[in-house]
Design goal:
The protein has a single domain, classed as Up-down Bundle (Methane Monooxygenase Hydroxylase, Chain G, domain 1), CATH 1.20.58.110. The termini are far apart. The chain is built from four helices and no strands. The chain is elongated, with a radius of gyration of 22 Å. It is mainly alpha-helical.
Length: 110
Amino acid sequence: MAHSISAKKRIRQNLKARSRNRARKDLIKFQVKSFTTALASGNEAKAREELNKTVQRLDWVAAKGTIHKNAAARKRSRLTRRLNAALAAAKAAPAGAPAKKGKGTKAASA
C-alpha cells in the first residue's frame, strides 16, 4: 500500500484513467460489432454509415490517447478493406446467380 500522499493520489488517478480507457475501448468494440452486423446483412448504405461512425470513434479514442494513432489507422484500414471486399464480392456475383465454375481446371479435365 502506498504511504506518501503523492503515491496515493497517483493510485486514484490511475483508477480513473483505467476506467475511462476501458469505457472508450468498449465503445470501439460495440461500434465494430454494429459495423460487422451491417456488413453481414448486405445493406451497403448501412455498412458505409457504420464504417464512418467506427472511423470517427477510432480517431476520437486515438486523439484522447487511449490507443495509439497507428493502431487506430490499422483498424480503420482493415475495416475498410473488409467493406471493399464485401462490395466487390457482391458486384461479382449478383444475387440469385450461381457462381460460375472455371473452365480448364484440373477438376473439370479429370
